[in-house]
Amino acid sequence: MITHPVAVCALSMALVAFPAPALAAGTIPARAAASPRSGLAGPPLDASLRADLRDMSAVRKYPNAGIEHLLENIQVTVHPDGTYTETKREIIRILNKRGQDGWSEAQEGYDRDHQALHLDWARTIEPDGHILPVARNAIRDDSPFADYPTYDHYRVKTWTFPATTPGSILDYHVTLVDHRPALDHDFADDDYFYDFEPARKMAYSVSMPAGRELFWHVHHADPATPVRFARSTVGGRTIYHWEIDNQGFTLSENTMPPAADLEPSVWVSTIKDWKAVDRWWLKVNRGKARITPPIQALVARLTRGIEDPDRKARAIYDWVVKNIRYVYVDMQYTGFESMSANDVLTRQYGDCKAGSTLLLAMLRAAGIKAHYALLETTPEGHLVTDSPALQFDHCIVAADLPGGLTFLDSVGKLVPYGTLPGMDQGALAMVTLPEGPSFVKIPVASAQANEVAAHQVVDLGASGDATVSVTIQYEGLAAASARSHYQQLSPERTQRSFQDAAADATSGGRLLSYHVTDPENLDQPMEVRYSYLAPSFADRAGDLLIFKMPGFEPGMTDFEQARRAFPMWFDSRSQSVNRTDIHLPSGYSVRYVPSDVQGEAAGVQFLGRYLEATDALAFRTQLAWKAREIAPGEYPAVRTLLERRELFGERLVVLQAPDRTGAEGRKSVSDAAFRKNH
User: Fold this and answer.
1) DSSP conformation letters of 236-288
2) pTM
3) Are 191 and 19 in contact, with CB atoms under 8 Å apart?
4) Which is it for strands 67-78 and 199-208: parallel, antiparallel or unpaired?
5) Using CA atoms, how far apart are residues 75 and 86, in angstroms rounded to an integer?
6) pLDDT, tens digit, for every residue of 633-643?
7) Alpha-carbon span 278 to 256, nearest angstrom
8) Which residues lie closer than 8 Å to 513 by C-beta, 6 or more apart?
9) Is residue 363's pLDDT more than 90?
10) Cβ atoms within 10 Å of 545's Cβ, excluding its own
């Protein structure tokens, strides 16, 4: 199928080319039928294209859109052995400069080991009907994985359209010829009818040979723009055809769920069940996880004196993630056959399936049963279980341990044993058990498991200056993020980052000391400590000291808009805790602190509280994201809660000097009155 790189190894693309297949005469609009090849200039303009040049109604109808899809037509002809030939025609109108900037280049991907991609024509049609073909020197064929020769057989053909001014039309046609089916004698594909830009017509067809049955499912169809289906027989072949018309413009939103879980799509396959997929995977990778003498010797050394299976698994996992360099590529574009475990051990690098194969062999050498677990990472959507196919973009390991089936990800370089990267959590994995494939939902860690806990101690002087000591502890995915940050910093830049933190906290802040635990040591909790001098921590106003609580960053990122069309989706749960203890100057007391704030909405919880003592003031906040998805109807309540949190963090704290301190004085200043005046 003509594919575009997404998932674990995403490539930016201008004209996206979804995986797709083919059609037959009589089932598609005449304007989209294949034409004789006439060089990159393409066929003569038909009446439909000339009419499109005159029709600029989309500029008024879709002011937020950059382009309009006039046509996307994909036709696949499947051969008896499971190979196929696919054609795709894309016709796009540029509506404005945004469209010109974003859509002047097109890309299509293919695997050179078993596919050939031909650019039949590519042209710009100017508003007056003049045709400008893409220049030969404006076409290139590159490997996005050229840095990894083992995996560079996936190619991307890119070309640049000339003169893409608003009102012009971009028109191209490509043919992909596949010489080897991905799965023995079988065919599977999917096509998405959505692009966050308006589309007049999107069509997808599959032509099947006699005697071959095609199973298909349509997902996430919108009743307002239904996916129409037609089936016909032409020359002994069965033609399956789907199309959708007049999709409007939809403004994409930050933190929305994966597009694959929202877009209307059709999934097709000749594979009857997942057992066939499981058998094929195991056949292709048979013997790859063989236990060789070097592997056996390494495992014996790592597990010497360890009897507990869980501790053995931990020792093996730690060695793999620390010593095997991860090559960041996606199985969809580099194939499903792994390097052998012994080769991975020798070369000490590999992609996810290679790292998993070595991990599998080492666990088995330690007497632990282990299996491949194949999944679609959650940022890319979820497996479509009613359409058996090689939908996976990631490979991990499922180990049979005393506590049950335990998932281990060889690419989790920054997460300790027992923690999985956020892209794995919540995914549905196909585990290749001896008795057959089993689908298991990978657990999602709790908010507490991904906690950032900050503790500040402020020694405040009567002049308003202060010395501040900060300790921040990270857990789970928060620790992985912190480890990544500090691994990439040189010692000089690390010191500078703490100097900047001190300066940002208060005007004239000066760093006194700092310490970062070893980010490479996954067995050690991730923690940073620093202290700084804050010469203007509090402002003096007569006998008052006034300040905001330090280290509290409210923020409304992703919640700026009043309402949403799509749910909010997060790849993990998380929690932040802030504990600040302020030692007051001698004799000073609290004149005013903000009232407590506490609330919960759609799994989001916030607590903000001040606690007074004779010579100290304590500040506590806790923000927990316990839900991974917030529905549009729940969004306003969450936004309101975060607005309350922001206001709480922006309010001032007032201390009073000892000569005017007293219960009467504090009671005379109400919360409302202070808010009004300050």
Assistant:
1) TEEEEEEEEEEE------TTPPPGGGTS-EEEEES---HHHHHHHHHHHTTTT
2) 0.85
3) yes
4) parallel
5) 6
6) 999 999 999 99
7) 32
8) 529, 530, 531
9) yes
10) 24
